[in-house]
Amino acid sequence: MAINFKVNVNTFLKDPVSTDLGKKILSAGIRLIDEHGLEDFNFKKLSQEIGSTESSVYRYFENKHYLFIYLVNWYWEWTSMRISLATINIDDPKVKIQKVIKTVIESTMANVDVPFIDEEILHRIVAREGSKAYHHKLVDKENQYGFFLAYKALCKKISNVFLEFNPEYKYPKSLASTLIEVCNNNIYFSKHLPRLTDVEFSKDSDVKHEHLFEMLESLIINSLTKKSKNNINHPKVKLS
Amino acid sequence: MAINFKVNVNTFLKDPVSTDLGKKILSAGIRLIDEHGLEDFNFKKLSQEIGSTESSVYRYFENKHYLFIYLVNWYWEWTSMRISLATINIDDPKVKIQKVIKTVIESTMANVDVPFIDEEILHRIVAREGSKAYHHKLVDKENQYGFFLAYKALCKKISNVFLEFNPEYKYPKSLASTLIEVCNNNIYFSKHLPRLTDVEFSKDSDVKHEHLFEMLESLIINSLTKKSKNNINHPKVKLS
DNA sequence: AATTAGTAGTAGTAATACTATCATAACCGA
DNA sequence: TCGGTTATGATAGTATTACTACTACTAATT
Q1: How many CB atoms lie within 10 A of CB B16?
Q2: B25 near B59, Cβ under 8 Å?
Q3: CA–CA separation, B195 vs B20, rounded Å?
Q4: Cα nearest neighbour of B239 on chain A
Q5: Which of A173, A195, A215 is nearest residue B198 as measured by Cβ atoms?
Q6: Distance between CA A71 and CA A109 in Å, rounded?
Q7: What is the pLDDT of residues B153-200, one digit of tens each?
Q8: Strand D contacts (CB < 7 A) among A residues 18-77?
């Protein structure tokens, strides 16, 4: 199955999916950002890698930040689609939540092939530096361009699943963004800053994310579950 | 009361607290990073702002990333100290957790004056782009230099408070880093990407963080609270 | 008064992040 | 087959950034 997202048109000058060079820019861009990190990646390296020129690359993306936004948007759209596929025909809200968590953790989609996007590498990039897409000074301007619509839609979709489990819950969107961010952080921490997490990084892909799933599931389900009488009777404290 | 942290000596070439110029670098650095954002901030702007030269600034910090690391470390140390002060002499573990949450949300410390650090601006910078301190390709090298020891110590301190509430809880460190990151994210989202959160940004400082506190409290306390029988009997599902 | 250690300032370089212009090859309908 | 458009490539140039090397000064020490 071939899929084609409509990534926000404001992110590119010329649709990279429409040409061979454009697809090369995407696939080599992913590889090089993974290899060098976003700060050390530039269009010179990219154009050399694909045997082209800087000016040709600039015809597709205004600068590397826009290319990065494009890729992160692609990831958000792709994750959103995978959640839809994973939760379709499932009725039990708890199972639905488990499927969502599993989808956010993993980076595979059965029967789908996008030859110019390596989803596993892209997921690693997003876990490492995806938050740079919006953690900067120009966020308000880029928000007006719609650069974060895909992220918002993804959060909306997840928060709706949460509300199916508990329609009374007051913070579904915060919990949705929390799920995504905490998931990515713990994947990253487990590999690079293990003292900031309890979930272990394992190369054995069968048990790789077992702890992470358990941790996220308890975080989400417990938050959504109404407190029992035992818990709400803790003493109330005046703060400050 | 004057305080003086020992920020990791590997972050600077010459201790900025030891001279007037160094203190100017810190205070103007905070102001300019807030104003321009980290990407658009540089040592030329900084040196002009304080009426000095680039080369003088370079004598204190190897580059702007190291200055940034210094400032974020300062924030972590400062938050750690505030947590200690806020939880001292408090026995009820739940109240302790509430104090921790409140401390992480806010950026004030009574009776303490560090004239060259504007803590409110620094907190805003950390909420906006603090995670850039470790979300990059050189994280492993910088981790060896001890750049993130203060963050790890902060997480350790918070996770110990969590364990007082529930010594059985399996993911205290993950929950601690989650608290910090989710707090900062929601402060930032409420102002810039409100669709990613349910907590509202308010200029009225009395109610400013009421929702955020409530959200974080429910997230933490519910995670730490052992599930009642009702909840653990949900059907178990085989995932993929 | 001479020596020296430490710090500020000047100048310069290499790399980055673009922009502009022109050439050329493919492709496309008339 | 012609003329026009599109896609890419080649070359050059600029402004800014991120430094580095060197010089000049100051202040304490002998």
Answers
A1: 23
A2: no
A3: 44
A4: A99
A5: A173
A6: 17
A7: 999 999 999 999 999 999 999 999 999 999 999 999 999 999 999 998
A8: 18-22, 51-56, 59
Distance, CA of A65 to CA of A136 (rounded, Å): 11
Which residue in the set B128, B219, B240 is minimally distant from A223, CB to CB?
B219
Q: Does domain A71-225 have CATH number 1.10.260?
A: no
What are A29-81's pLDDT values in tens digits?
Answer: 999 999 999 999 999 999 999 999 999 999 999 999 999 999 999 999 999 99
> A86, A99 in Cβ contact below 8 A?
yes
Residue A91 Cα distances to A42, A88, A203, angstroms: 47, 8, 33
Domains in chain B: boundaries: 68-129+138-225
pLDDT at B216 (0 to 100): 97
- Residues 93-152 on A with a CB inside 8 Å of B are 94-95, 98-99, 102, 128-129, 131-132, 134-140, 143, 148, 151-152
Separation between Cα atoms, residue B164 and residue A233, nearest integer Å: 18
Chain B residues closer than 8 Å to A98 by CB = 237, 239
By CB neighbour count within 10 A (0-12 exposed, 13-18 middle, 19+ buried), where does B201 fall? Answer: middle
CB atoms A182 and B185 under 8 Å:
no
Map tokens 């201790």 to a residue: B15
The answer, yes or no, to whether residue A112 has pLDDT greater than 90, is no
| Distance in angstroms (rounded) separating the CA atoms of residues A176 and A156 | 8
* Rounded mean pLDDT, B64-74: 96
Give one DSSP letter per residue of A158-199, joined into a string: HHHHHHHH-TT-S-HHHHHHHHHHHHHHHHHHHHH-GGG-SS
CA angle A238, B180, B30 (to 5 degrees): 100
Task: Indicate the residue type of B142.
Answer: E
pLDDT for the residue numbered A146: 96
Tell me: pLDDT of B5 over 90. no
Residue A168 above 90 pLDDT? yes
In whole angstroms, what is the distance from residue A10 CA to residue A5 CA? 14
Kindly tell me if the per-residue pLDDT of A235 is higher than 50: no
Mean pLDDT of all residues in B47-75: 94
Tokens 């504007």 label which residue? B118
